[in-house]
């Protein structure tokens, strides 16, 4: 089972268990915020530990890459919460 499916399943469980509709914009903002924080921390560590211009480039690229990864994971989780909200509406009536 791929990680993408697990993320969507986790989102579906989250959407089903929590009553009412989930604030999907807030989930996306939180995902991007944490992606930026982790990206900056890991990028700074990469720059501090590396002593060349290549390490600086890898650090900046690492920040951007982690932001993209956080965006994809957040969108997959939001898809799962949408499915969970639909199941909640159908099964809990």
**Strand pairing plus helix content: what structural class?**
mainly alpha
Low-confidence stretches: none
Strand content: under 5%
Distance between the termini: 31 Å
Explain the overall architecture.
By secondary structure, this protein is an all-alpha fold. Helices cover 86% and strands 0% of the residues. The chain contains three helices and no strands. The chain has helices at residues 3-17, 24-49, 53-91. Helix 1 crosses helix 3 (53-91) and helix 2 runs antiparallel to helix 3. The model has no long low-confidence stretch (mean pLDDT 79).
Outline of this structure?
The chain has 93 residues and is an all-alpha fold.
């Amino acid at each position: 089972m791929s990680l993408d499916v697990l993320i969507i399943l986790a989102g579906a469980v989250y959407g089903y268990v929590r009553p009412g509709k989930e604030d999907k914009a807030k989930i996306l903002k939180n995902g991007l915020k944490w992606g930026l924080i982790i990206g900056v921390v890991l990028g700074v560590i990469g720059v501090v530990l590396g002593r060349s211009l290549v390490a600086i480039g890898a650090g900046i690229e690492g920040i951007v890459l982690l932001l993209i990864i956080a965006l994809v994971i957040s969108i997959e989780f939001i898809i799962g919460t949408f499915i969970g909200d639909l199941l909640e509406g159908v099964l809990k009536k």
